[in-house]
What we know:
Helix 2 crosses helix 3 and helix 2 packs antiparallel against helix 5. Strands 1-2-3-4-6-5 form a six-stranded mixed sheet, sandwiched between helices. The chain is built from seven helices and six strands. Helix 6 links the parallel strand 3 and strand 4.
Amino acid sequence: MQDAGPTADLSHPELAEALFHALRPDAYYAKMEALVEPSLDAKLAMLRYYDHSITEAERFGRVNKTADKVSGVCIWSLPLDAKQARQKHVAKLSMINQDMGAACSAAYQKISTSMSKAASPFITGDDWYLSILGVAPAAQGQGLGGPLIAPILQSADDSGCASYLETFTPRNMSFYSRMGFEVAAELFEPLTAAPYWLMRRPAA
């Protein structure tokens, strides 16, 4: 019988691993990793976070993966009714509490509240949100990012909806600009003590 490793219960272990390495320098994810309960395995906790984010988007939003299904993924949040939004929120907090600990749960709620409030003057309730885009470091520089997000941008256009994202990484902004996003605001997130940029793309 094959030994069940610590990631055996993950639905997307390879993609979670790709996101872990791709996004580790990001101020938000670095903060979350630093706050993982000391009794827990920090890397495994982050893998569970990314895995949950993918399965969450499969249920409530949109997901697109690289052709090999392991090198990269983009995760989108779409507008939800109140019941769905509540289900999504409760499930996310439950996962964070269980797999990452109380400090991560508190940080997630503080950061989410702060960023949602800051974004509200620049977006509408109909906007599609690119919450995560990551390509494994070994596969970066191969032109995978554009094909990952282009089909979902087309779907947003077909629906007449604008799209937006937030990035803590300035070097990503030129890529997003090429995909039609424009900087709507430069903001500051207090808990991470880091600047970030909100970029929005109107429906074509």
